[in-house]
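Please, is this right?
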Amino acid sequence: MDPGDRLKVLINSSTPIVAVETVEEARVLALVRQTCAELSLPLFEWSIADGLMRSAVAPSRSSATGMRRDQLQAAVNQAVNLGVMESSAQGAGQTIMNTREPAAALAHIETLTLDAVFVLKDFHRHLEDAVVIRRLRDVVQYFAASRRALVLTGPAIKMPPELEKEVEFLDFPLPDRTRLHDIVEETFARVAKSHTLKRNADGAVVEQMAANLCGLTEEEAERAVAQALVTRYALCPEIVTDVLEAKKDILRRTGMLEFVDATVNLSAIGGLENLKRWLGKRRGAFDDAARQFGLEPPRGVIIMGVQGCGKSMCARAIAGDWKLPLTKFDTSAIYDKYIGETEKRIQKLFRVAEQLAPVVLWIDELEKVFAGSGPDSASVDAGVSSRLLGSFLSWMQDRKSPVFVAATCNNVTVLPPELMRKGRFDEIFFVDLPNTAERKAIFSLHLAKRKRNPQDFDLDRLAAAARGYSGAEIEATVQSAMYAAYAAKKPMSTETVLEEIKATVPLSATRAEDVEQLRDWASKRAVPASLADAAGTSAPGR
């Protein structure tokens, strides 16, 4: 439901407290003023700096609201006669005396006899005061049978237990592409009044700018566009990239999502042909043609396996191969010490991810987020992990936006089973230690990456010597061989690499039992990422 329509329903149904969690205070005020005008209700605004005052925005003058305007005028005249109003009889924009303190403002609101809406700015800072809580409870009882509402605004609002059942939270969505398109045009017109700007962009450029701004608030979008315009003094194709870079910086500062450069594609990964084939079939499934064909966008995959075998690189390569933006979910930033705040953060993350769609959402080390969400977690963290899991499962099941979740996992056995069933993720792939052909491909890739011709090396000998090595360990041996050759002032050769292989003890040897246990679990519950594994030829050490 549209926020304006939702607000009307809340006011007309005598909801006493409406909480709006957002940093866009000006946008909230504009919405409330418009709603009050449509409902023909007076509006009062309060802040700790100015106290309580009538809003300068008058209600609409429809023929059906004459009685209410008469009541409003009578109430204002009564306030003037009692000496509580500092200025004119209209009172618009004038502070009501002795209402700067939160408790005093609530006491005054309780004395008013007219239906009205009261916006309390940054009131969350006063919700631990016992007197304020008591006053709020009195106002709630007073508002219960009338068209009166308190609208609380702030970046995060934690209601005291006494009032939790009396409040309704109003979701304030991020702007869609249509609104972002308007913001680009409005910002250009505003900046052009004070700067000489050129316009060398057509409608397609503006549409691309709007797409790149998805996921930002209106204020953030305006700021990003204005900075880009002032930097180039033009609305031009180059500004599209400027806006995207600005958005990356803004999202990085939120602490939960980070844009990651997806410069690699699946061809940069050695082996894993079964996973590549599965992903290749879904390339282009986010296009309009796919939707017209009747396809739903793929939901996501869990890529589990031995450490160092390329799981994270696969997540990056998916976005690069599909030419989609890649955002990484910072799992450590989601938890908050205050009850209820963690759940709010995950919901905000979902909203931002959907606004960025189509996008690949990378969740690294999935087990660190949901490993503690079992039945005994409530005794450990007051049930936060279980509620977090519930929110994530609902979103994975019900979301319609094309957000592909690429989750990596080292220990899938600790994940709750409901997280892994079909409908949440499309498939679970197991990445084992590379086989002989894959080790050859990995050596070839890393040698070429370091400006060495793979044909100058005996790849068969290297692959055989590196049996049981992960892709990361193979890369490390090539890098170590580079250091050794440089220190010895001699060309890098097959023998140089072999010496480094012999000097390294792979994870498959130091953690052999863990690797074997993981393989045993995956053999019956996951799809092998490699064709050799899919054919049943996987064995310890491969």
